[in-house]
Amino acid sequence: MNEETLRLNKALADAGICSRRKADELIFAGLVTVNGEKAESPGMRIDIRRDKVICQGRNVVFCPQKKTCLLMLHKPVSVVSTVKDPEGRRTVMDFLPPAYRARRMYPVGRLDFFSEGLLLLTDDGELANRLMHPRWHMPRIYEVKVRLPHTGYNLQKTLALFEKGMTLAEGEKLAPVRAKPASALKNNEIWLEFTLNQGLNRQIRRMCRDTDLTILTLKRVQQGPVKLGDLGRGKVRELDENEIQSLRRSVGLA
Questions:
Q1: Is 112 a catalytic residue?
Q2: Catalytic, out of 112, 123, 212, 240
Q3: CATH class of 140-223
């Protein structure tokens, strides 16, 4: 079978149009055509080099490639986790070598402007959608250096609150977060290790804000089975086959 021939729903997902499940819904709703004919089944096979696919009135552009590309970037601080930035700030795409920029790479989730660490980028739409979907949310581990507000501060009480599941000032109830010291306390500063299973925006920063901890450094070091390791700040590498398969298994794709 020609390797460029794909199931229609997978082709739409790989093109970054939507998830495979959403593609099924669009096809059954009659919103996808192939060579001018309404697609009847998500399983119909198309040749992405030759067939013309229109989804919701828009032409779908496919990029035939030898294989899926999955990158790990050690995102530095003061960099936005988007493909483009209207304010002209550096984006994660600025750190990709030209060969990767030519592909339709995009970040899987985000790290905020002042945070650093592990960020995945891929051209596999289905994998990206699953990695970001709450149903498949996998543990993420962060190393966070904080400053305590005063000498008598009860850090153990705060860590116990994190483990129990706290309510943020905005009223959002958090799932339990594993948090433990990762260094000795020195000059009222200490490294903590946080393990999150929830994907709330700026969650660790808001947790520390509400418990009077000042964040000095926030770094993501692991996402699911994939670890940042000793990858240098601003550096990029391709994930190896074992890492890719582990990620795919973690979201039900292998």
A1: yes
A2: 112
A3: alpha beta
| Both structure tokens of 163 | 């483990």
DSSP label at residue 136: G
Q: Where do the CATH 3.10.290.10 domains begin and end in the chain?
A: 5-59
d(CA 90, CA 74): 14
The 3-state DSSP composition of the chain as helix, strand, coil percent (nearest 5) reads: 25, 30, 45
**Looking at the domain covering 70-136+230-250, what would its CATH class be?**
alpha beta
pLDDT digits (tens, 9 = 90+) for 212-233: 999 999 999 999 999 999 999 9
The encoded tokens of residue 44 equal: 């119909």
Which regions of the chain carry the CATH code 3.30.70.1560? 140-223
d(C-alpha 47, C-alpha 56), whole Å = 19
- Split at pLDDT 50, 70, 90, the class of 251 is confident
Cα(132)–Cα(108) distance, integer angstroms? 7
Q: List pLDDT tens digits, range 173-191.
A: 999 999 999 999 999 999 9
- Closest C-alpha among 153, 201, 204 to residue 178: 204
More confident residue, 86 or 126: 86
**At residue 133, does pLDDT exceed 90?**
no
CATH of 5-59, one of 3.10.290.10, 3.40.50.1240, 1.10.10.10, 3.40.50.410: 3.10.290.10
